[in-house]
Amino acid sequence: MARKLERRQPSRKITQKILIACEGSKTEPVYFKSIRNELRLPTLEIIILPHQSKTDPGNIIERLIEERQQMKNEKRWTTNDTAWAVFDGDEHIEISRNNWQKAINRANSQKIKLAITNPCFELWYLIHFQDHLSQINREKLIQLLNKYIPEYEKSISLYPKPLQSLTETAIQRAEKIAKQIEREQLYEYSNPCCSDLPKLVSSLLGLKDSSSQQ
């Protein structure tokens, strides 16, 4: 009996992996998972680590280091791959500036990239719709965001709609905030900031990162 020939499915060749660990259990993971679902790029693998109860920046960074080492041990990590820690600044800086700086130093020494928002990730959402260059607390931020996204909740997906078409504008506005921080010689992670979050989003979307061109 003639053997039936089966068509071999082309294997997916991953050329880059982006490993992400988030402080939040809803907002940030939902956003990055929505981008991943929308993109479905054959050569880019976006790995969002499942949320755990420990949300301290130091714990998030250590978890990334452990996961990356595991992938290295399994020969699944290459020089093209990057690991990102995504967390807020406000309360962590207020609780212990010393612990905060230890976490930042640890990340830098281990080449863990940082995407830090202050006061919170919703600032990134807000600047898709308007500029915001002054200090703000979480409550006021949600009030402003509700003007554009009525009855906003942390668990709702905002990508691709309504954020996708506004992403490059948000990146430009985040750059305005970064330039203000530099001009006024403020702390890199002061309120407000979306420090390096545009770089992470740009790398996911394949956009040109304007900050790297300066």
User: What portion of residues is helical?
Assistant: 40-55%
Taking the sheet with the most strands, its summary is:
5 strands, mixed
Nearest-integer average pLDDT: 91
> What structural class do the secondary elements suggest?
alpha/beta
Q: Please trace the helix and strand order, writing H or E for each element.
A: EHEHEHHEHHHEH
Widest beta sheet: strand line-up? 2-1-3-4-5
Strand content: 5-15%
Our measurement of the CA-to-CA distance between the termini, rounded to an integer number of angstroms, reads: 67 Å
Regions with little confidence, pLDDT below 50 for 5+ residues: 210-214
Shape verdict: globular
Count of DSSP-assigned helices:
8
CA-based gyration radius: 19 Å
State the total count of DSSP E strands: 5
Could you characterize what this model shows?
The structure is a single chain. Helix content is 43%, strand content 13%. The protein contains eight helices and five strands, in the order E-H-E-H-E-H-H-E-H-H-H-E-H. Helix 2 packs parallel to helix 4. 30% of the residues are buried. A five-stranded mixed beta sheet has the order 2-1-3-4-5, with helices on both faces. The protein is α/β, with parallel strands linked by helices. It is globular and about 45 Å long.
